Amino acid sequence: MNNLDSQLDKAKTILENNGVIGLPTETVYGLAGNIYSEEAISEIYRIKNRPTNNPLIVHIGDFEMLNEIAEEIPEYALYLAKKYWPGPLTLLLKKNKNVPDFVTAGSDLVAIRMPDHPIALELLKSLDFPLAAPSANPSGQISPTCAEHVRNYFPKQIPLILDGGECEKGIESTIVGFENNVPVIYRFGSLDLEDELKEAWSKAPLSNSEPTTPGMLYQHYAPKTETISTENIETIIAIHHDKLIGVLSYSFCEIKDKNSNVLFQEHLTENNSLIEAAKNLYQKLHHLDQLNLDLIVCELVPNIGIGKAINDKLIRASHKKINK
Ligand code: TXA
Ligand code: MG
Fold first, then answer.
1. Please, which residues bridge with residue 299 across strands?
2. Pocket probe mutation, ligand 1, options 108, 213, 312, max atoms within 8 Å of Cβ
3. For the CA atoms of the chain, what is the radius of gyration?
């Protein structure tokens, strides 16, 4: 038996015995447990220190499981699932009564997705139950994009973290719900659906303003270090000469202010690629957060396509957003 097989076997045993594991997905790492096990689900909430009114995403490994989890599924939801699963799309659907209330925090809706990662898929296919998995970070902190991030957060609390390498997408799935059968984007994420939905539905079908997903109410993705997201790095640096600063810019840039205390600089992309920027975002934030700086200054990225998701994360990560 090779190493991966034995890790998968171990994961299966833990999950079948109401335990939780660290799970790689294409978006971010999850903290996964059996959706039918109250013990596993409360362990997830406890380990993450997650408010109990914030429901979990159900992860499935094949399409048949969709009907076990959801009902009255709009046709367009099925169309999207067929088109994008496995992939970074989470659908918010009417919950089947099979799904325990402790997974959905009492809501009649359930969030569901099929992750596109070979380890996650193989594990899910080997289990008789779906996995609930929020991102594997303490509530409110930066999401993990490699096994080491998860280990650093939870050195003792999780018996097993499956190592699936660096996450391909680097930011969370896009959440789409339905209002009167019309799709609505509730969380911008790594699947850019805005144009497609606008084209298919003349009524502009997006909303990230109304936080129907309780998770959107909280400050999120936040480094421990004070963080400011801005359109103009230089202006912020100029008013913080007294601080040790780390800069996270979109592409490479030279800081002109020679009186500043910029100790460390990172950039998100080498070649103006928003996809590359998304993949690097949390990785770079984790790194800057470990340097004991006084302040992290992040540059907002072009607000188009997946850039909207990146900016949403940057603004939620920051203690302040400053335009100029
Ligand atoms: O990419 C992802 O979606 C990752 C990976 C691990 O799959 N998971 C993830 O989970 O981001 P989490 O728990 O960090 O974020 C899930 C979001 C939260 O904002 C939560 O409020 C919302 O989905 N959500 C989950 N179930 C819901 C429900 N039944 N109704 C409304 N919102 C829901
Ligand atoms: Mg999360």
1. 230
2. 213
3. 20
List, for residues 125-147, the tens digit of each pLDDT value.
999 999 999 999 999 999 999 99
Q: For residue range 1-30, what is the model confidence (pLDDT) as tens digits?
A: 679 999 999 999 999 999 999 999 999 999
Alpha carbon distance, N-terminus to C-terminus of the chain: 58
Atom 31 of ligand 1, nearest CA residue: 213
CA of 56 to the centre of ligand 1 (A): 5
Which ligand sits nearest to residue 177's alpha carbon? Answer: 1
Which atom belonging to ligand 1 lies closest to the Cα atom of 109? 29
pTM above 0.90, yes or no: yes
Dihedral class, residue 140 (left if φ above 0, else alpha if ψ from -120 to 50, else beta) = left
Its sign, for the CA torsion 164, 147, 281, 321, is positive
In whole angstroms, what is the distance from residue 55 CA to residue 43 CA?
14
Closest atom of ligand 1 relative to the 110 alpha carbon: 29
